[in-house]
Amino acid sequence: LKMSWFWLYLPLHLLMATSLCHSIKAPTTSSQQRFKTNLFNFYHSLILADGKETTVHLLKDIPKRYYFVLEEGRVLAPFSITVTPCDVPIEWSILVYKSPPGFPGKAAPGDHDTQEVSKSQKAPSMVSTIFNYKGNSVETYMGMSSHSALYLLEFLSTERDTHITVYLTTDTTSGHLYPELPMDPRIDVIGIGHTMVTLTWKHSPSALQHSESIQYCLLVNEKHNYKSLCAAETAIRSSGMKLPPALALSLSPYLLEPQQVMILSNSELSIINKGSSGEVRQVCMGTRNTYTVPNLSPSTQYYFDVFIVNLLTNASAAYTGTFARTLEEPEPKVTELKDGKVIHVVLDGKKQKFYSLQYQARHKKIHFTFQLCRGQVRVHVTRNGKTVASENLSGLRYLSLKGKLLDTYVVQLRSTEESNSSVKVQASPHFHKPLFPLLPESLKIKSFSKLRTCRSVTIAWLGTQEESKYCVYRKRIEEDQIWGELQSADRCSGPESRHKSEKVLCKYFYDLNLQRAVTTETIKGLEAGTFYLFDVYLFGPSGVPVRYHSKVVKTRKKC
Hints:
This protein is mainly β.
């Protein structure tokens, strides 16, 4: 805008409108009101910047107006206006205020006396609506304008407070703010599996011409498609998730919230938001136009949106979204559980598949025993198709159920982490000989710091009211091995997996008074300033051991 001309234009336009009131004979009340409304709208509007994307915040049921005029000297010039709703549908329209040919909008050369001006002021002004729209799609209006016309844009949200972006440009020759979509902007689904969907889309002309500053970003969710990146970001934030302000530009670790997971692999950046409304994934893959979305849930409908993003301007354009439903998971192979038999199950954490065990009851009371060996495991138990138990396992778990003869129980096990997990399972009648020994209140091993020396440490652990055998093992380790040893420990493995040199001693003890059922042991012959891993194994009547939680102790460096 050339502001010197602009400020001259405004008073003349106002004078033109004022003279219009006097030139019309006996105007009706409705026409007077409409004219006053037009004047009010004009003087309560904001200037819309040319060549810049403007964010407009709308309050419910309160219209907001912007206006613009063209540069002086341009009789006819093309312009375009792009409006992007970022949430709910909105209403917006374009009004044009045109003066007649004899009223150019500025003083003409020559005589400037008041009489000449007053004559021109009597010419009527024309106000018309040239465009209106209601919805939540991205809409662009393209038109031709004269320098004697003023444009008023009016925006209204009738559902709730929201925001939109508006982009006005009168320079249609030097490129576009928004990346260009191909002639066919649809996303094609070319492959569907149980946990994956493969997508492809036609290249954007912008990506082919400016590959260094353009990239594709994919949004995956379980609710619906989004018509703009702005709308997607707003929806994710309103659902309680935290989203970086720009999907393509702000994917950096320091912006991530606790409920977000960032994955970087093969020059591909993914962010996974986990919230109450489901999981939302964002993946930016450069200029590749084919992508396979992995790790989806079987038999689930997903919605896919592709956005092409200009890394220099942060502007984006949306392809036409699509959806697909993953295939149903095939019925898992079922392994039969037999009375008293122990089954050791290893679960693949990457595939996240259920492992199923089936047991037919020959007694009314059934006793299930689960011993978590490694990792994290989720167990789900049904009786005749109805759920009777569902929980995450921790250590040793006994589950006693009462039903009818010939009831069918199905036990489903699944690893809840990406690494492999394992668990031992036993099903038997309630009166069957127990697989595991009677357990103490805690399986922790305690060490006494004051009793540590350069050559020995003293440890203690709880026992039970039942006489049992306890074996102690030790292992020398380095400081950087501690975390790995504790994480990878197989809690189901017995002393047979240990080297003979690691065995310290075995002993029997019990106490009918549980408050006194504790024993201590001083392990000697150690090296000064050294880390040792200590394990205690408890053996019951069945001979199946239970491993206490490993304990790492460091001997004193100086004594």
